[in-house]
Amino acid sequence: MSDDIDLKHMRIFLQLVRYGSATKVAHETGISQQAVSNYLKRLRAIFPNELFIRQSNGLQPTDFALELADRFERVLTEVDGIFEEAPFDPLSAHRSIVVIANEYAQLAIMPRLFQALRLAAPGVTVTVVDFDESAHERQLASGEADMVIGFSGFMDDCVLSVPLRTDYYCCVVGMGSKVAEKITKISDLSGLAHVDFANAAAHLGTSVDSFLEEQKINRNVIATLPCYTALSNFLALNDVVAFVPLAVAEASQMKVLSFETMPKAFEVSIGWHRRSSGSAVRKWFLELALGCIK
Question: What residues does the HTH lysR-type domain cover (predicted)?
Answer without folding.
Answer: 5-62
